[in-house]
Amino acid sequence: MHALPQQPSASIRLSDYRAPAWRVETVELDFDLGIDASEVTAGLLLRRDPAQDAPLRLDGENLQLLSIRLDGRQLPATAYRYAGNVLEVDGARDGSVLETRVRLRPAANTALEGLYLSGSREAGFLLTQCEAEGFRHITFFPDRPDVLSSYTVTLRADRARFPVLLAGGNPDGAGELEGGRHWARFIDPHPKPSYLFALVAGRLEKIERDYVTADGRAVQLKIWAEADAIDRCHYAMDALERSMRWDEQAYGCNYDLDVFHVVATHDFNMGAMENKGLNIFNAKCLLAEPDSTTDDEYRHVEAVVAHEYFHNWSGNRVTCRDWFQLSLKEGLTVFREQSFSADMNSAPLKRIEDVALLRRAQFPEDAGPLAHPVRPAQYSEINNFYTATVYEKGAELVRMLAGALGRDGFRRGMDRYFARNDGRAATIEDFLAALGEANRTDLTPYLAWYGQAGTPRLKAHGHYDAARHEYTLTLAQHMPGNHGTEARPPLPIPVKLALFTPHGDMLPLHLDGQTSKTGNELVVVLAQAEQNFVFTNVATAPVPSLLRGFSAPVILECDYTPDELALLLAHDVDGFNRWEAGQQLAARAYEDLRDGTAAIALQAWCDALAKLFDNAAIDDALLADLLTPPGEVELAERESAIDPQRIHSLRQTLQQRLAERLGALALRQRYAALVAHTTIELDAISQARRRLKRRVLELLALLDHDGACELAAGQYRDAPGMTDRLAALAVLVRNDAAQVGAALHDYRERHADNALALDKWFAVQAQLPGEPALDRVRALEHDAAFTLKNPNRVQSLLGAFVRNNPSGFHRLDGAGYRLLAERLVALDALNPQVAARLATAFNGWQRLEPQRREAARAAIVELAGHRGLSRNLAEIIGSVLN
Ligand code: PHE
Ligand code: ZN
């Protein structure tokens, strides 16, 4: 009955890349800005590639063409054609100037791509979003990242309605016009691709700071926001200054314009955007103040501010040749941000957080039908490739390269990369070549990592020869499942390792035949399908600590006993690997419960954590993480016929066993001790206490429901800031506490005027576990504050439900799937990018148990049969069904 989904054509291929036939040397843009209609005049100085003989073709979408002139002459209708989002113009020569004038409709732009309105018609402001292909929604242009041009931008608008006019580059004059209008001009001295163009116009307030770069440039830093938000920008300003200093010190990268603008908007499809000289942020990644921002969000703001700033070199000065190279800027910039955040905060906690994200978001992506290489070979809609694979796995690849070269070697390589590619549009090959040549080493074997999808498995097996005092570690790699059966070259897999005695001490390492490789910890690189590494002078049978710091993005398969994992959990000095041992042990404990087998791992896990719980030397935040078993999504990755509701209840039981082992009394005492230290400070120790306090309360609730809810209600009432308040609210919601109605009501009133705080009110309820979640979501959809037009609000309710609440979303009756499918149709008509991203929640449906699988399939097939789905959504749905 249902039409078969059309397989969206994978129309664009890396192998088809051709250099542009026409370039644009300079662009003069003139904007007459208005909410309903804006007019854009563009003057392009054209350069023709003499080696190519192609007509002039410019991209343009939804543009109302008002006039077109070539070299000063109005073109007759026969001299150009505008069809299929391409404008073809006859008669252009090298050095010609093409001038077009078009009309746009910002207020009608709900896709938030191109020029659009943020907020209300009366009070909102205008802004642009061009990455990846938004510039073609603003004017006719060769809208591809390998066309670099110098921009001169003039903005004109009514002064009362648009008092602030901003564009990227340095300011070059401003003044009055007739009729209450005014103008401002900006010149960007650095040639850039069109995706980095931006403008902002409206009523905005600012905070300012003067900054002098290491190489002596005076820069004005300005952060802009609407009046009710400007007081929440100070933390971002501090983070920006820290980022700028860090990039000077760590990479020798200095800022290169006289002003740096940052703008906050509540209407944004992504986290933030690195437009040259004019970064634009989703408010949730910029605004911060204790009363409405959690500790995790503070760190996120710092990270995103840094990320966007770091793009000024890794992305803007050196950009991407084409969108297949997206990870060249994104993987590298995520890695740079991770290093920065590790330096500013706790390095092991940052690593745990990043690896947990990789496992939660990237591993499932890489294991299902949406899997793609870090450098994809083809796509239909580029906006669907801003993925965990391109970002997070891409960052892991850079981390491996950095590890292979060492600190100084990597810096040398990066210096070479920036110097050689400055002002160019580069490729992954350029990156590997620069790093390799600066270190006289060949990194091309790592290119294979960029070209294949799937998470490799690393098998490790150790053998101790007591007579010869030798320990042989056998490492082998393989790629499981359906990622092609053709023979693949082995990947280079760096394995950082140490060996522990049964007492938890590290053994000195002597790697046979490699005299240079000694110490307590070293890196071996598995370069073949299988390899033996022999360690000599090993006094006792060791326990290996492998992949320390998560030295490669693989799944480790090692036949540890529960006792060995418990030993590492107790003694490993690598904070990440200590946590990792605990995660592995917890997963085994989970399997004990699931399979009803002897609870050896469960016992070992609980015993080890009980000891750590009483160990005053351990950091509170690390302890909180150690007390948290792998999440439901991660546990599901280990199953073949997934029943998310069963996983949820088994995981609850697992935590209950842990809570029983720790004991209600000890939990209560610990909670009380932490409450006694409650502050609103943001330092690491205060944050760590809040984190542990939350975890202890969650565990206590599994033993003493009413008592814990009582404490949570008190914590809610007395919370000095959002971290404690939201944690308490979450405990009340998830435990269906008697006090929850009053708390939700209070929160709603207290934060009624704060959209970001309200988002959390929606999200916490969308994560109500199990059957009741769906009705709650439906009810919240009728809340006056809910709208499909705001991406953050969609994310906070629907996103939190379908992505962060497996036991609520995956109902046996399939109602969760049908709800998602219905909302996707409505959302797609407004905002295809956001719809497509939400639709990835269907990923993995093939591995559900049969009844849910069938229900999910039916919902997806029905959705796929809808007429007029966007290319964005159609591509995701088509791939997911495969
Ligand atoms: N380039 C942005 C970043 O990662 C992300 C982004 C992509 C924003 C596309 C908007 C649109 O920093
Ligand atoms: Zn980025």
UniProtKB/TrEMBL annotation:
Family: Belongs to the peptidase M1 family.
Taxonomic lineage of the native organism: Bacteria, Pseudomonadati, Pseudomonadota, Gammaproteobacteria, Lysobacterales
Keyword terms of this UniProt record: Aminopeptidase, Hydrolase, Metal-binding, Metalloprotease, Protease, Zinc
Protein name as catalogued: Aminopeptidase N
PANTHER family the record matches: PUROMYCIN-SENSITIVE AMINOPEPTIDASE
Residues of the Peptidase M1 membrane alanine aminopeptidase domain: 235-444
GO molecular function terms listed in the Swiss-Prot or TrEMBL record: alanyl aminopeptidase activity
EC number(s) given by UniProt: 3.4.11.2
Cofactor needs: Zn(2+)
Catalytic function, reaction form: Release of an N-terminal amino acid, Xaa-|-Yaa- from a peptide, amide or arylamide. Xaa is preferably Ala, but may be most amino acids including Pro (slow action). When a terminal hydrophobic residue is followed by a prolyl residue, the two may be released as an intact Xaa-Pro dipeptide
Gene3D superfamilies, alphabetized: 2.60.40.1840, 3.30.2010.30, Neutral Protease Domain 2, Peptidase M1, alanyl aminopeptidase, C-terminal domain, tricorn interacting facor f3 domain
Membrane-traversing stretches: none
Domain Aminopeptidase N-like N-terminal, residue spans: 109-196
Enzyme class, UniProt record, top EC level: hydrolase
The keyword Metal-binding belongs to this UniProt entry's keyword annotation: yes
Occurrences of domain Peptidase M1 alanyl aminopeptidase C-terminal (ranges): 563-881
Peptidase M1 alanyl aminopeptidase Ig-like fold domain: residues covered: 454-558
